[in-house]
Design a protein that fits this description.
The complex is a heterotetramer of chains A (251), B (188), C (497) and D (505). Chain C is mainly alpha-helical. Chain C has 19 helices and 3 strands. In chain C, strands 1-2-3 form a 3-stranded mixed beta sheet. In chain C, α11 runs parallel beside α16. Chain D has a domain of 204 residues. In chain D, α12 packs antiparallel against α13. The chains are: A mainly alpha (251), B mainly alpha (188), C mainly alpha (497), D mainly alpha (505). Chains in contact: A-B, A-D, B-D, C-D. At the A-D interface, α1, α2, α4 and α8 of A face α1, α4, α5, α6 and α8 of D.
């Protein structure tokens, strides 16, 4: 296997180096990728077309919103996939090869207290990141991950059962699905109003302001949908992996 | 010396290849399933590095507009709705391209000039597009969007990979590929 | 002369037996009704073919395009002289074989009779499809259909022997048809781009190089392995594991004749006699056929199993037909075409006699049949007539076709091949005639050796004997009235024979 | 409403996947009907799209109302419409079939299973209809992630196979992604048609970067379609996965990857680049020849029914890769036609293998003995599939071979023609071996003495939900065969824009 690996690496590496010879200089503003209508349009016209000053958010949630919807679906898929692969329902059957378990002591007081203080702040920050994605780095994915991390921290600090009380398994799935429904709902709504899928401009019919405002607001809605899904699935992945699919006790 | 120079010029492109090859080697040659997954992560991250490097421009900043730029553009575009906006797209882009060339000629050395300078510069041009925003001031936003997707895909694949590894461990009691294959071969 | 009319009759003639599958399967609970359906279908089919006969004899071709399946290519039926000749033989003999099958299958209490009759009917459809197909593609379609439909018939007994025989059968037929015919077919299509309609002038001339033409000719000749040209002949003895009616109809008439029919079509309809003559490549095929004739006759001499001996005889006789057409002289080609009919009638008689013997006594080996003629006079009289016809001796139809073949050889100026014809005729007589002779005039000491009591033996049941008598009579009749066959064959040559 | 049909192709299975995951938590029994309804709707949408494409030419559907290249578009021409119809129909048939299997093989997780199933279908459909090179990657990953999971939900050996698939699949997809990155760095666009235009106008065909991009994308897709010698992940995956998983993946995943290859070679790089500037036809056709022979011979060595069929997939992949690189219009017509016909014939034989497994619980080919007596209708379905794989007219398989061989002769690639014929013959051997076992109902003396006798007494015809898809597939195979002219005219309409070499006449 080692020899095979080395051969593969040498061939591929050589190939990639060949390609590198023809690359434009690193950081060259006149390189084809930068100096063309696509990239320039995003930089110069985003603000006119969407009123969002964070171009990444605008491209993510509007110009390439269809990509992002399926990005969310990828996350959702991963969640369902891991449940499908690992989850064991019913009374826990003894595995042939159980994982080594740690001694489950009572949670440490310092850790518990710190978490109790930290978690609300983390969650608040997550909300900020989600909501402020239009103006600063951030958005649904980033915020969702942070929010999910808060729950994971809880599960780490106490145990999985405690975290499960907050977000039981079914609720996790509901949240994930709702997230996707929010996103796809924007698309379906624009379909219903007679425009193409995900064409937010028609949503003026339900949102305040003109067509551009509709895009602006829809993007926020979409980001919130993403955040729902990401939060839920992050925690779901953690809880499945940590408990070997039994959802009883984590690490 | 020339080689060193060329490496230094496109440092990122060399690094991504090296990282990618490390990942690829682990993917192919490692026996331990978790190590393979680590290799996979390195492999995917190298591609992310490559993409992000495409978007980098000397002297450019993150693709987020300053408050006043945003306001400026906002104000100008306020007259029309989205329909108009994308009817004008073709036209506007051509205009913008011309404009940018002009700017580039005028200020070949002035990439990192501040936005305030641009305001005055741009105002002397066609008022229709009149954006105070200059493409070379901002990194390419598209690649960041793409890489957000790639990151998400990477996380998802890693998660599924780990889940399968865990299931394999539950079934075979090992995460060494050769041992698992041996168990299958000896017939269980 | 070459006028054409469009009519659905050829399609109907082809489909009748396929449609008959439905009543056959539905009536599986009552054997009489089931066989009744077979009969009705057989008679309708024969009637439809006869209905077309006057038209075809008048020189008119009957066309029907069923389905434009590929750009340029359609599933198309066209009835001309050769097709009519073969269709007439196949459909008339089907009725007789059906009758015979009933006697045979019931006499031996065979299992799965419904399946037997079903696939029998499908095979007949495919055979008539081959006979009436208007282009090379349709021909191939029905050729493959026939290979597959006869597999359950060949392996009817479902024992170890049948498994081996069936395996050989399919291996040879499919290997050659997929490996040789299909690429040749596609090559022809690529090179000519035509609809591949058969025409007396052929449609290859001018499209391919002479060396490619030779390769194509060999691919087709060997590819239609149902014709049993050596070295692709060994499926035929293997397939004799089938019940005798199957051997009789399929391996004396339908399957093997489809093989030679296809080769004839390729010679006369795809290449065209004139084009082949100008290329001077048919001699290769002629010599291969000649080799097959002699070798198979020699092998036949050494066989004790009656059906196997007949099988090798068939291989030789098929090569006569191919040899005749490969000579390219008008008389030889006419002889070939007529021989399809003459040999069919003769050989089916022989097979049915063999089956009748088996039904009545359970004997398969020639050495056990001494003196049997006295117990089964009709059967063995018919056998002798059949043997005469196959050998080509008067007063049977076999003489007519052989006469044409031999004179055709003289026309073509191939003296060496003429010698081969004569040698093989002697061999034919040597392996066929003694059977009948010994059945009627056994040597006493050999008879005493067999620990078998002949007393209980009598003729097989009427459905077995009647067809045998009819076919042997037919062999005699064809001696007196062969003209319409020769006319049909002559239509293909455009000279009226 | 019809102008919105393209999005509905995808939207139904995708949204239903989420609904199934949600509703299935409480009402497991609803998963199956919901799946059927959504796939049925998807079939209707794809058929309507196909009708529009045939009537009015390619459809460009702007997502979000942004005109390309700024937004993502669906670009649906004859090729994508045909493959989309194939994918949705195969998915529907498999879904009907899955009723008994899923409950039996993954009892607690049927809702997750159906959800993943639908997501896989949406991923594949997304690949087929998109006109954006990067969006294709996202869809590729949706399809890939779901297939890893769908395989890993099988038995012990399936887990390891799924892991291998995950590693190989990730390498393949990453190569594709990197290739798209190379295209982007040189052209600055992600829209397929736009890339093509820039490649041509900017004269980028001599750039080594584009060359490497082409190699990376091709090799990446080859890995994902299991082109020999990159096939090692496939046999175990499809052989040990749950029945429904292999039923949906075996016909579709490799075929959709071949679609991607055709799309990349023809639409993005252009035949001029792929076939003339890079003069690789001979090498790739030889590789394909090796793949065809290796797959066929590999199949001969198998005693496990489903594993044998998986090796046939590898051979069929060789057909199509070779067919594309014949660089001949007829050959490429054959390749595209074979995508469709092979999807259905693979489906047909896998459905059959699934029925055998469900009824006898045995995997080896001797489980078939006596099947003609016990389940005649099932065997009829199987026969049609087998004949199609062998290439006996008038089934679909014959006609795809017809065009492929023609392409081989036209372009003078005789080795390809010979390989195709040999593989047909090997298929004949393989399937008649099965037919023989099923027909004679007796094992050869050398076989091990399994305890089949008792199990088989109770084997009877498969249930309606299993039989219906099998027989429909068989019927579709014959219909495709009979109506191949119509299909081919759609394909040739699509190909006419590329000015391919046609015939040496």
């Amino acid at each position: 296997m080692k020899i095979l690996g080395i051969i593969t690496v040498i061939i591929t590496g050589f190939l990639l180096l060949q390609a590198e010879r023809d690359f434009p200089d690193w950081g060259d503003a006149a390189s084809p990728a930068s100096d063309n209508r696509l990239s320039q349009h995003y930089i110069t016209e985003t603000i006119n077309e969407t009123r969002v000053s964070n171009m990444v958010t605008a491209v993510l949630a509007d110009y390439r919103g269809y990509d992002t919807m399926f990005e969310t679906v990828v996350i959702f898929t991963a969640g369902i996939a891991i449940i499908g692969i690992l989850r064991v329902y019913g009374p826990s059957t003894k595995l042939e090869h159980p994982e080594p378990t740690l001694d489950t002591e009572k949670p440490d007081l310092i850790i518990e207290t710190t978490c109790r203080l930290l978690i609300p702040i983390i969650q608040l920050f997550a909300l900020y990141v989600i909501a402020h994605g239009h103006y600063s780095p951030g958005g649904g994915f980033q915020g969702g991950v942070i929010f999910g991390a808060a729950f994971i921290l809880l599960a780490l600090a106490r145990d999985l059962q405690t975290a499960q009380k907050w977000v039981p398994e079914n609720r996790v799935l509901n949240l994930a699905a709702i997230g996707i429904f929010i996103y796809a709902g924007h698309g379906v709504l624009s379909l219903i109003f007679g425009e193409n899928f995900l064409d937010y401009s028609i949503l003026t019919k339900v949102l305040p302001g003109d067509a551009i405002d509709a895009r602006y607001h829809s993007m926020l809605g979409v980001e919130i949908g993403v955040a729902f899904t990401v939060t839920a699935i992050m925690f779901s992945i953690y809880s499945n992996l940590a408990s070997n699919g039994k959802m009883e006790e984590g690490i | 010396m020339e080689l060193l120079q060329s490496i230094a010029d496109s440092f990122n492109y060399w690094i991504y290849i090296i990282l990618m090859m490390i990942g690829l080697y682990a993917l192919v040659a490692k026996n331990n399933l978790v190590k393979k997954l680590i290799g996979m992560s390195i492999f995917q991250t190298a591609i992310i590095l490559f993409y992000v490097s495409i978007g980098y421009k000397d002297g450019a900043t993150i693709p987020i507009l300053y408050e006043h730029q945003a306001h400026h553009g906002h104000h100008d575009a306020g007259h029309g709705d989205a329909e108009d906006a994308h009817h004008d797209v073709e036209h506007a882009v051509e205009e913008a391209a011309k404009e940018i060339h002009a700017v580039a000629e005028d200020h070949a050395d002035g990439h990192d000039a501040h936005a305030d300078d641009h305001d005055t510069l741009v105002d002397s041009h066609d008022a229709h597009t009149s954006s105070a925003i200059h493409a070379e001031d901002f990194a390419n936003p598209l690649v960041h969007v793409l890489m957000l997707t790639a990151i998400v895909v990477g996380v998802a694949t890693l998660g599924v990979g780990l889940a399968i590894t865990q299931k394999l461990y539950g079934e075979f009691g090992s995460i060494e590929e050769s041992e698992i294959i041996e168990q299958i071969r000896t017939g269980k | 002369m070459s006028s054409t009319i469009t009519s659905i009759t050829p399609l109907l003639a082809c489909l009748v037996s396929l449609i008959a599958v439905l009543p056959i399967v539905l009536l599986r609970k009552s054997p009489n009704a089931r066989e009744g359906a077979t009969f009705v279908a057989g008679i309708i089919k024969f009637g439809l073919v006869l209905y077309m006969l006057p038209t075809v004899l008048a020189g008119t071709k009957i066309e029907y395009t069923l389905w434009q399946i590929l750009p340029n290519i359609a599933i198309e039926f066209r009835v001309d002289g050769l097709g009519m000749l073969f269709g007439l033989v196949a459909s008339s003999l089907w009725i007789l074989t059906s009758l015979y099958s009933i006697g045979y299958m019931r006499g031996l209490k065979e299992h799965s009779q419904t399946r037997f009759f079903t696939f029998f009917a499908i095979s007949l459809s495919a055979t008539i499809g081959v006979a009436f197909s208007g282009n090379l593609f349709t021909l191939y379609l029905f050729y493959e259909m026939l290979s597959l439909a006869t597999y359950p018939l060949v392996t009817h007994h479902q024992d170890k022997e049948a498994r081996t025989g069936g395996r050989t059968y399919l291996t040879y037929l499919l290997t050659t048809s997929i490996g040789f015919v299909l690429p040749a077919l596609i090559f022809v299509f690529v090179k000519t781009g035509s609809s591949m309609d058969f025409s007396p002038e052929g449609f290859l001339a001018g499209h391919i190089s002479p060396s490619a033409a030779l390769v194509l000719l060999l691919l087709f000749t060997f590819g239609f392995a149902k014709a049993g040209i050596m070295p692709f002949h060994s499926w035929l003895p293997g397939a004799m594991v089938a019940p005798t009616p199957v051997s009789a109809l399929l391996h004396a008439v339908a399957v093997v004749k489809v093989g030679v029919f296809c080769v004839l079509r390729v010679f006369t309809g795809v290449f065209g006699i004139d084009y082949l003559e100008s290329l001077d490549i048919a001699t290769v095929v002629a010599w291969i056929a000649a080799f097959t004739v002699i070798t198979s006759s020699l092998i036949a001499l050494s066989q004790d199993n009656l059906k196997r001996r007949l099988a090798f005889s068939t291989i030789g006789q098929l090569s006569y037909i191919i040899l005749g057409v490969a000579l390219l002289s008008d008389r030889a080609v006419t002889g070939s075409m007529t021989h399809i009919a003459m040999h069919a009638v003769g050989k089916i008689t022989l097979f049915m006699c063999a089956g009748a013997v088996f039904v009545a006594t359970g004997k398969k080996y020639i050495s056990q049949m001494d003196g049997l003629g006295k117990k089964m006079p009709f059967t063995f009289a018919a056998f002798t007539i059949g043997a005469l016809s196959v050998t080509g001796l008067p007063p049977t139809g076999g003489l007519i076709s052989k006469f044409y073949l031999v004179t055709g050889t003289v026309d073509a100026g191939q003296v060496a091949l003429l010698v081969i014809f004569l040698i093989s005729t002697i061999l034919n007589a040597a392996y066929l005639l003694p059977i009948g002779y010994r059945a009627f005039f056994p040597k006493d000491k050999e008879l005493s050796k067999t620990p078998f009591s002949w007393k209980a033996v009598e003729e097989a049941s009427l459905p077995c004997v009647l067809p045998v008598c009819i076919t042997s009579t037919l062999a005699l009749v064809l001696f007196i009235k062969p003209q319409f066959l020769i006319n049909l064959a002559g239509l293909m040559l455009g000279s009226g024979g | 409403m019809t102008e919105q049909a393209p999005i509905f192709i995808l939207l139904f299975p995708f949204l239903t996947a989420v609904i199934v995951a949600l509703v299935g938590l409480r009402h497991k029994s609803l998963s199956w009907p919901l799946t059927l309804v959504s796939l049925g709707a998807s079939v209707c949408a794809s058929l309507s799209t196909l009708a529009q494409v045939v009537e009015h030419g390619p459809i460009r559907y702007k997502l979000g109302g942004w005109s390309p290249p700024f937004g993502i578009e669906f670009h649906i021409d004859g090729l994508s419409a045909l493959v989309a119809v194939t994918v949705s129909v195969v998915a529907l048939l498999t879904a009907i079939y899955s009723k008994d299997n899923v409950d039996a093989e993954t009892p607690d997780k049927s809702s997750q299973y159906y959800s993943l199933f639908l997501l896989l279908v949406s991923g594949l459909l997304g690949i087929v209809i998109t006109g954006d090179a990067f969006n294709l990657y996202v869809m590729l990953e949706v399809a890939a992630l779901t297939s890893y999971a769908l395989i890993a939900m099988g038995n012990k050996r399936a887990s390891l196979a799924a892991f291998k698939y995950l590693i190989m699949g990730t390498i393949g997809a990453s190569f594709y992604l990197l290739g798209v990155g190379y295209l982007y760095i040189k052209t600055g666009s992600l829209n397929m048609l736009d890339i093509r235009e820039i490649l041509e106008t900017a004269g980028l065909f001599n750039s080594p970067t584009i060359l490497v991009a082409f190699i990376l994308i091709t090799v990446g897709v080859w890995i994902k379609m299991a082109f020999f010698p990159l096939h090692s992940w496939l046999p175990n995956c499809y052989a040990f996965a749950p029945t429904t998983s292999s039923n949906i993946m075996a016909p579709l995943v490799t075929k959709v990857m071949i679609y991607v290859m055709v799309r990349m070679v023809l639409t993005v790089f252009g035949p001029n680049y792929a076939f003339e500037i890079l003069d690789w036809e001979n090498i790739v056709v030889w590789l394909a020849v090796i793949a065809i022979l290796a797959g066929s011979i590999g199949a001969l060595a198998q005693k496990d029914l489903r594993k044998m069929l998986t090796f046939l997939i590898i051979a069929e992949v060789g057909y199509m890769v070779g067919g594309l690189w014949l660089a001949d219009e007829t050959g490429i017509t054959g390749t595209i036609f074979h995508i469709i016909s092979d999807a259905f014939m693979t489906l047909c034989v896998f459905l059959f293998a699934g029925i055998v497994f469900a009824k006898t619980g045995a995997r080896d080919i001797y489980a078939l003995e006596g099947m003609f007596k016990k389940m005649p209708l099932t065997m009829v379905g199987f026969l049609v599939g087998a004949f199609s794989l062998i290439g006996i007219p008038p089934t679909a398989g014959f006609f795809s071979k017809w065009y492929l061989v023609q392409g081989g002769i036209n372009s003078g690639n005789w080795e390809y023609v010979v390989a195709l014929l040999i593989s047909s013959l090997i298929n004949a051997v393989l399937f008649f071996r099965l037919i023989e076992i099923a027909y004679f109902g007796k094992k050869p003396a050398e076989g091990h003495d399994h305890h089949h006798g008792d199990d088989h007494a109770k084997v009877s015809e498969a249930s309606f939900t299993m039989l219906l898809p099998l027989l429909s597939t068989a019927a579709i195979l014959i219909v495709i065969g009979l109506y191949n002219k119509e299909l081919v005219s759609v394909i040739q309409d699509f190909l006419s824009q590329f000015n391919l070499a046609t015939s040496i006449r």
